């Protein structure tokens, strides 16, 4: 998405060689029209996959997850984050470390909303090391649902997340791939 690249060049800030601040577009403020375009793009890339549900993790995955779900005409399911989780037999849970926050959280999806009759498209805003993504993939696997693939707005290709997930044989579609943030410069792949 060329328009998205331009917006990132103008509105994102390089924090250091690893982290790009995307508060203006993804993590604090969202542009509804641009987010609608993202959703339509993911929906078209996964057309014909018989998606029954879009799944994401709260909070920053929700806007683009929503527009993708709207474009596909299916519900959006978002995994919830909890600080400490009391064992819940009615939910799938996974413990995930967070790259930016330096903390561990539990993500949770109720068994009520995910089962082996589902084919899910996993949408997320950013992929870095992929810890959160791997956690949600494990939950999807345990539910028996089929994973059609991932749709990621910003893939930081210099970190291992997207590559290792592709190596598992899972399809990963990214709207923008960033090769490097070295020297404060955003270099696209
Ligand atoms: P991930 O690759 O599966 O996202 O897992 P990772 O543990 O690497 O990243 C954890 C969190 O850090 C995610 O947000 C992810 O979006 C965020 N993150 C990673 N790299 C960057 C970056 O360069 N810029 C920004 N702005 N965020 C980054 P989260 O914990 O899911 O929080 P939320 O935004 O959904 O609330
Ligand atoms: Na996220
Ligand atoms: Na995030």
Automatic annotation (TrEMBL):
SUPFAM superfamilies the UniProt entry points to: PRTase-like
InterPro entries: PRTase-like, PRTase_dom, Pur/Pyrimidine_PRTase, Xanthine_PRibTrfase
Binding of xanthine, residues: 20, 27, 156
Pathway the protein takes part in: Purine metabolism; XMP biosynthesis via salvage pathway; XMP from xanthine: step 1/1
Gene Ontology molecular function terms on file: xanthine phosphoribosyltransferase activity
Entry keyword DNA damage: no
Any single biological process term in GO: XMP salvage
Catalytic activity: XMP + diphosphate = xanthine + 5-phospho-alpha-D-ribose 1-diphosphate
Transferase found in the keyword field: yes
Subcellular location: Cytoplasm
Enzyme Commission number(s) from the entry: 2.4.2.22
Binding site for 5-phospho-alpha-D-ribose 1-diphosphate: 128-132
GO CC annotations on file: cytoplasm
UniProt keyword terms in alphabetical order: Cytoplasm, Glycosyltransferase, Purine salvage, Transferase
Quaternary assembly: Homodimer.
Functional summary from the UniProt entry: Converts the preformed base xanthine, a product of nucleic acid breakdown, to xanthosine 5'-monophosphate (XMP), so it can be reused for RNA or DNA synthesis.
Xref: PANTHER family: HYPOXANTHINE/GUANINE PHOSPHORIBOSYLTRANSFERASE (PTHR43864), XANTHINE PHOSPHORIBOSYLTRANSFERASE (PTHR43864:SF1)
Recorded family membership: Belongs to the purine/pyrimidine phosphoribosyltransferase family. Xpt subfamily.
Protein's name in the database: Xanthine phosphoribosyltransferase
Source organism of the structure: Paenibacillus nasutitermitis
């Amino acid at each position: 998405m060329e328009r998205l690249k331009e917006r990132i060049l103008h509105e994102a800030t390089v924090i250091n060689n690893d982290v790009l601040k995307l508060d203006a577009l993804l993590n604090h403020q969202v542009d509804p029209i641009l987010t609608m375009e993202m959703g339509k793009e993911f929906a078209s890339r996964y057309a014909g996959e018989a998606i029954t549900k879009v799944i994401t993790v709260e909070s920053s995955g929700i806007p683009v997850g929503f527009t993708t779900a709207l474009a596909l005409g299916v519900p959006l399911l978002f995994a919830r984050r909890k600080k400490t989780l009391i064992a819940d037999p009615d939910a799938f849970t996974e413990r995930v470390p967070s790259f930016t926050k330096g903390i561990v959280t539990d993500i949770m999806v109720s068994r009520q909303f995910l089962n082996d009759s589902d084919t899910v498209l996993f949408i997320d805003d950013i992929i870095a090391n992929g810890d959160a993504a791997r956690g949600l993939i494990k939950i999807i696997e345990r539910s028996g649902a089929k994973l059609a693939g991932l749709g990621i707005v910003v893939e930081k290709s210099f970190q291992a997340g997207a590559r290792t997930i592709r190596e598992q044989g899972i399809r990963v579609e990214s709207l923008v791939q960033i090769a490097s943030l070295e020297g404060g410069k955003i270099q696209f792949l």
